[in-house]
Specification:
Length: 445
């Protein structure tokens, strides 16, 4: 405990770090205040604020509850995340965007500009759908079309403002701003979820012992997720010696860290998008609504649904790893810098060697990711309340673990630069970006 307070004191002594942390907390406070500001022309008492399920529940969690309370930040940063993913995929399919990705800072600025334009379009479309589906009946105090036009503008402005807050956190604060905003939205739901589960268990469904066992299980799942997020396979790279003037360069051995889960949370997001299709089939085709297969696939807590979900995650992990990790470019970069893998010829042989290792480590990584993704459903099956079960895995837990590790790593870097001790005695904290990234562009989450 003494070392903990000493570390906090050291953090506070570093002026730049103190200012950045303060700025981050103030920006996040502004975001949380905005999450309780209701849209104009909406009666909060008439809203259906019960816990959402499926995609709506996921969106509500990412928005910190703003989605179900018709806040001006109801759509959060999800339209921006969607736009970032689309632009990233365009970089693979469209030569113009692929060229921009290789143009350095100027190209990245143009990509960011396209992402913002696409965010506005996606937000406007989602705002119309949100107003039509979530705010109906007595909740509307203003008649259409004024209500829809006004609130589409407000929701779009709210998302752009949240984007601006995220950029300010990244520039003036600590950590990735967009990721921190998502993390805060998720954490905001945790106290209520724990309280609901505690009251449910102590009210006669399992007792206090069951609640304690659930907390221990949650800690175990978090530890397992940390292992998957941080897991890497290091490839030794030897650099040839070069004599420039009177100085010698190279001649050292370094390592390329290949992540066990290079795809991050994206396979779960893609798989979830496809798994929502069976839920909409009954509304589109009422004649097959009673089909047992359709009903099983539409049930988030059924074994067929979760088995298909796990298979899709494994497939998307291979797909997303293949499009974000480029062994050929990694081999070319090594060759240009005079590096080689001991025992492997430079060029195509090195690319094949790296590709073979990526294929081998992606399988256990994808299986582990699938296990983490289906744990919330398994927890619901054994009686855990749905809102608390969401924290046992899935997208939310992976985002929480990754963002917290990245933020702590940045804080530790500030401490070590000023010759203070790090946050841990046993070694440095390794976040998702603690090692040189493999070739590819990853979304903010």
């Amino acid at each position: 405990m003494k070392n903990f307070f000493t570390t906090l004191s050291n953090i506070w002594k570093i002026e730049d770090l103190r200012v950045r942390i303060t700025n981050t907390l103030l920006f996040l406070l502004i975001y949380r205040v905005g999450c309780v500001v209701v849209l104009p022309g909406v009666d909060p008492a008439s809203l259906n604020t019960h816990a959402k399920e499926g995609l709506l529940g996921l969106l509500n969690m990412f928005a910190g509850g703003a989605f179900s309370h018709a806040s001006i930040f109801a759509l959060g940063v999800m339209p921006y995340i969607s736009a970032s993913i689309v632009v990233q995929l365009l970089g693979i399919a469209v030569p113009y965007f692929a060229k921009l990705q290789k143009e350095g800072e100027s190209g990245q600025n143009k990509i960011n500009q396209w992402t913002r334009y696409l965010t506005i379009a996606i937000t406007a479309l989602q705002a119309i759908g949100y107003l039509k589906s979530q705010i109906t009946g007595d909740a509307r105090l203003i008649a259409d079309p004024v209500f829809t036009i006004l609130n589409v503008f407000v929701l779009t402005s709210g998302t752009l403002f949240v984007m601006w807050l995220g950029e300010r956190i990244t520039d003036k604060g600590i950590g990735n701003g967009i990721s921190l905003i998502i993390m805060v939205g998720i954490i905001a739901q945790l106290p209520g979820a724990v309280a609901t589960e505690f009251l449910t268990r102590t009210g006669g469904q399992g007792g206090l012992v069951t609640f304690v066992v659930e907390l221990v299980a949650l800690i175990a799942v978090v530890m397992f997720t940390i292992l998957i997020v941080q897991g890497t396979r290091k490839i030794a790279v030897q650099y040839a010696k070069r004599i420039v003037g009177n100085k010698q360069y190279g001649g050292v051995r370094q390592y390329i860290p290949l992540k066990v889960n290079a795809a991050g949370v994206m396979p779960i997001i893609f798989a979830q998008a496809l798994m929502f299709i069976p839920a909409y089939i009954p509304s589109l085709f009422p004649s097959i609504a009673a089909n047992p297969t359709v009903m099983a696939l539409a049930n988030y807590n059924s074994w067929p649904h979760n088995l298909l979900f796990a298979v899709l995650i494994i497939l998307f992990t291979y797909f997303y790893t293949a499009i974000t990790v480029n062994p050929n470019q990694m081999a070319d970069d090594m060759k240009k810098n005079g590096g080689f893998v001991p025992g492997v010829k430079p060029g195509m042989a090195t690319a094949n060697f790296i590709d073979d290792i990526i294929s081998k480590i992606t399988l256990p990584g994808s299986i582990a990711l699938a296990i983490i993704a289906v744990i919330p459903a398994l927890a619901s099956m054994i009686g855990v309340t749905p809102i608390f079960a969401r924290f046992f895995g899935g997208t939310s837990l992976i985002i929480l673990v990754g963002v917290i590790l990245d933020t702590l790593q940045q804080i530790e870097s500030h401490l070590l630069m000023r010759h203070y001790d790090g946050l841990m005695k046993t070694g440095r904290i390794k976040g998702r970006s603690s090692a040189p990234a493999v070739t590819g562009t990853n979304p903010v989450i």
